[in-house]
Amino acid sequence: MNTHKAKFIARKTIAAHTSLYTFSKPEGFTFKAGQFVTMKVACDNDARRGVRSMSIACAPNEEMLAFAWRETGSGFKMFCNEMEPGDTIDLIGPSGHFTLPEDENVPIVFLIGGIGITPVMSILKEEEQKKSRREITLIYSNRTPETTAFQEDVKKIGLPNYKYVPTYTDVKEKNLSDNTEETGFITWEMVERHVQEPVKKHFYIVGTMEFIDAMRKMLNDNEVERSNITVDNFGKYS
Ligand SMILES: Cc1cc2nc3c(=O)[nH]c(=O)nc-3n(C[C@H](O)[C@H](O)[C@H](O)COP(=O)(O)OP(=O)(O)OC[C@H]3O[C@@H](n4cnc5c(N)ncnc54)[C@H](O)[C@@H]3O)c2cc1C
User: What is the pLDDT, as a whole number, of residue 178?
Assistant: First the structure.
């Protein structure tokens, strides 16, 4: 697999303890929306030798590369937090099959937990650029609005058949001025409130392993066919 050098450009805070990092796009580097890279930084003080998988959080035709993660204080993340513009890191890849089917008639429901939103950002931005008419529902679970990364971006995606359903697990009272906003964990009843005939849709899941297991169980219990479920292995170490 190819290794590319990318130059750090900037970091910005996009939610509580969550940063967006931009890098120059190395010459000849191409990827599909929804793919990830393996990042390698020269950091001695890290349990995983400075190596992490990170989904690409921008569309393939954007000028720069964007990544987002929670700031946990790990050696890798502290190292990245202290980078200066122009510092380089290695990117290995791209890899991954968390990509949409070519056929725009396949309706998609994203079930997303927390920072698992990153590959979805790439996909949604590309769909927007393509002026896609695909039916897409994004059900995006976070503890609170403050911890929701890319909140404004996912709200304003301009697609004709797109619906955004945020849900907050630590918020008790529903926001009555917003009829798509939910509270609590994602349940089948919640899915049914926002998606017509959900059993016929294609589900894409990203989040922690616990989140993935809970979503798979919910879909299996409600007879969604396995061939209609795509999971990003993102949660393995997140
Ligand atoms: C395909 C893919 C895409 C991803 N995309 C993103 C993304 O866009 N944004 C994002 O925030 N994260 C993403 N992740 C997760 C990311 O790679 C990190 O695992 C995560 O950000 C946590 O890193 P950390 O440095 O904060 O913590 P770490 O120091 O890596 O520790 C995280 C947890 O993993 C455990 N752990 C550490 N090493 C191992 C090991 N060798 N075996 C088993 N358990 C271990 C630790 O005990 C801890 O509980 C992705 C992962 C994959 C596989």
Answer: 78
